[in-house]
Design brief:
By secondary structure, the protein is an alpha/beta fold. The chain contains 14 helices and twelve strands.
């Protein structure tokens, strides 16, 4: 079966809109969380978020949007976009450039695209309200593809003339990890030579604030401590948006094009909790099974794993559940990988999370570091026996695992293996 390599990355995130800025923030453990103006109302208990910087997408008319000068988007493209589609478009341009792809590499039968997002609740509400108030025929003819779940792949496949496999994934916070896993399989099974994988979310009021009613969002008003996975005082996650794009290629394509990959996507695994629609299994059963399946897929022993990028969102139940899953697979055989949650810096990207954090892992493997788990002042006793690193470690991990979990108890673990350093 063909090996799969990560050859290109693109980022629009709360901690940076390019790879070099993201690397710098990860190393220095600099967060992108701030007091969010849209949450200032007295009736809103949540006060912080981790928005994308350098973009203004508040208007319902995309022609009024502003974004960094380096990007040019044709008017006819903008008309079918929601904010996270614009983020995805910009991140995809970065990834294409990073992977040194030419148009012929992108538009052919052997290159596909998988994406993950929840759609744009704000844009969809706007279009439905307009239909009700102005009349059916006064709606934008592109309102549906601009707003519903699937809008990312609809737009990118059309705009970049993708001719291979394309679809979207909807497993909430595990979505883009599922997209990466199935993209891996498309290549290993010989169906495609290259897959472009996208995770994206608007990261605005309508995508973040509904989680407040679930008691899932942090009510901490301090941007410096609101997102603190594994800390005893954590009280929920901080919402974020943006986009991350990864280019995956077969070993044959890497060799043909002479590119230096970031790392190998060596395998993956998934499993379900079968427990609750919104809450992780208290013993981490599904994630433990996903980890076991991932290591088997990659032919990796627990003792070989150097670093785990945890899903840990900073919720009281979820962080401990994940710790139990990790302990079952790793501590039981004496393995002690370094563990951190970069959500302390970025907030939780929902459908974006898996792709964004896999991108972070790929950067860490190329640049030789493991990012620390920020904002821990009082370690949660239930996780204290694990090797949770609180400072950046200047060491190149050789095998990395990235965990993701979503609604319905969907769990995905991805395994990355280092390639020879090009530093």
């Amino acid at each position: 079966m063909a090996k799969v390599f990560v050859t290109g990355l693109g980022f629009i995130t709360s901690i940076g809109n390019d790879a070099s800025t993201v690397v710098d923030c990860l190393k220095r453990m600099e967060h992108g969380i701030e007091s969010y103006p849209a949450f200032e109302g007295d009736d809103i208990p949540v006060k912080v978020a981790a928005p994308v910087k350098g973009f203004d997408t508040a208007s319902y008319d995309p022609e009024d949007w502003t974004f960094p000068d380096r990007y040019r988007v044709k008017r006819e493209f903008l008309r079918s976009m929601s904010p996270h589609v614009l983020y995805s478009y910009c991140a995809m341009l970065q990834a294409i450039e990073d992977a040194k792809l030419v148009p012929e590499d992108i538009s052919n039968d052997n290159t596909g695209l998988f994406a993950a997002s929840a759609g744009s609740p704000d844009m969809l509400t706007y279009y439905v309200d307009r239909m009700r108030s102005k009349g059916i025929m006064r709606c934008s003819p592109l309102g549906i593809p601009a707003s519903i779940s699937g809008t990312v792949q609809f737009n990118l496949v059309a705009h970049f003339s993708i001719k291979g496999a394309s679809t979207g994934f909807a497993s909430a916070c595990a979505s883009s990890s599922h997209a990466l896993g199935y993209a891996h399989d498309e290549i290993t099974l010989g169906r495609q030579e290259r897959m472009i994988v996208v995770g994206a979310e608007d990261g605005n009021v309508e995508t973040i604030l509904p989680f407040a009613a679930m008691r899932a969002l942090s009510l901490n008003t301090s941007p410096d401590t609101a997102s603190r996975p594994f800390d005893r005082g954590r009280d929920g996650f901080v919402g974020t948006g943006g986009a991350t794009v990864l280019v995956l290629e077969s070993e044959a394509e890497v060799s043909r094009r002479g590119v230096e990959p970031y790392c190998e996507l060596a395998g993956w695994g998934q499993a379900s909790d079968g427990h609750n629609v919104a809450i992780s299994h208290p013993e981490g059963d599904g994630l433990a099974s996903a980890l076991k399946n991932a290591l088997k897929s990659a032919k990796v022993e627990p003792q070989e794993v150097d670093y785990i990028n945890a899903h840990a969102t900073s919720t009281p139940i979820g962080d401990v559940s994940e710790a139990k899953a990790i302990r079952r697979i790793f501590s039981a055989v004496g393995a002690r990988p370094a563990i951190s949650s970069t959500k302390a810096l970025t907030g939780h990207g929902l459908s974006l999370a898996g792709a964004m954090e896999t991108g972070f892992c790929a950067l860490a493997m190329r640049h030789g570091f493991m990012p620390g788990s920020a904002h821990i002042t009082d370690m949660e006793p239930a996780v204290a026996d694990l090797n949770i690193i609180q400072e950046t470690v200047d060491s190149r991990p050789q095998v990395v695992v990235n965990n993701s979990s979503g609604f319905g108890g969907a769990n995905v673990a991805l395994v990355l293996r280092a390639v020879p350093s090009v530093d």
